Amino acid sequence: MKNRLRKGGFTLVELLVVIAIIGILVGLLLPAVQAAREAARRMQCSNNLKQLALSAINYESAFRRFPYRQGGTDGPALNNKNRRSGFISILPYIEGSNEFQNIEGGGNTPGFNPPQPPGGPEGWNNNYHWRISPSFMRCPSDPMANGAGGLNSYSMSMGDHMGRWQWELNNHSNVRGMFSNRGHAAHGQITDGTSNTLLYSERLVSSQPYPNATGNTGTVARTVRHRETIAQVPNVFQNPLLCRQVSDGQFLVAGTVHQGNGGKFWHDGHPTYVAFNTILPPNAPSCVHVVSWGDGDPAILPPTSNHTGGVNAARVDGSVGFISQNVDTGNLTIGSPAWGETGPSPYGVWGALGSKSGGEVGQPVD
């Protein structure tokens, strides 16, 4: 009897085995691909911080002082109410000269009436230049930063104290951090060393709606990440640990009043929009004494990111590094140092990185 020759090809079982093997390989490779993409996003985030730091250094070279956090002009014809963000000041040093000149010049802008004042209008004015932030203000790892608007993924260091607006106004030359209300830090004030003092770090753009004066009361637990909003905690300025009570470690506790204004107005210099402080560690909850639109203060505003384990941060010497969310924070049961107060930070290594003249030279800061 003649042998029947088998035709070439795969059986159904063999095909299923091959598909299963491919599926396993894809499952093994996908996390690696995602990790590689996040590494690239994190590198871009770090590069943006580097450019911000270098622009502030170049500003200092030109004016012998660093930019303010908020300042500007006030008066009948010059009315940005001294709220203009220091990010506007550094535009000429980070490829934004044309935009800066247009803001400074004021005048007619297509689609806007009346004409814009020199230096720009109030932060809450629907100004053409305020509506869209530059690309270097947005971190690729921050999902909300991809939206429309004047968004910012980066913030300025207030040091180891909480933003209290009136105190800053009266003591702007004696603040412990690098940026303040109408105050300009000088190199001679950085006695802790430029490599030991922070300039900029990350803060996620809030995922929550911008609130009214009463805030937004959530009723369901585990729906709002604490990194993406600012909780109301009365008297938090007396005991920063109170801020921990509004979170289960990742999400806000149900019923917490919170405001979603962080990172949404790159041009407005109020702390809750464009600043961070070195009290609670990176990626901890943010809290404000009273929710009041964007003007609530005093506030605890740690830097936040979606990077695993911490945040990127730039120092006064222009270097950029990663700071762990497990950094030493010292004694968090006491209020922040008074304006103009000298001496080491009560908030350990983290507080020392924020203060520019706390006398912590020689101790490890990472």
Would you give an account of this structure?
The chain has a domain of 254 residues. The strands form four sheets. A five-stranded mixed β-sheet has the order 10-5-6-13-14. Strands 7-9-8-11-12 form a five-stranded mixed β-sheet, with no helix packed on it. The chain has a two-stranded antiparallel ribbon with strand order 1-2. 48% of the residues are buried. Helices cover 23% and strands 13% of the residues. The N and C termini lie far apart (83 Å). The chain contains six helices and 14 strands. It has 366 residues and is of the alpha+beta class.
Provide a concise account of the structure shown.
This protein has helices at 12-63, 86-89, 97-105, 165-171, 271-274, 348-354; strands spanning 70-71, 84-85, 107-109, 112-116, 154-157, 198-202, 216-217, 230-232, 257-259, 275-276, 287-288, 299-300, 310-315, 320-324. It has 366 residues and is α+β, with helices and mostly antiparallel strands. The longest helix has 52 residues, at 12-63.
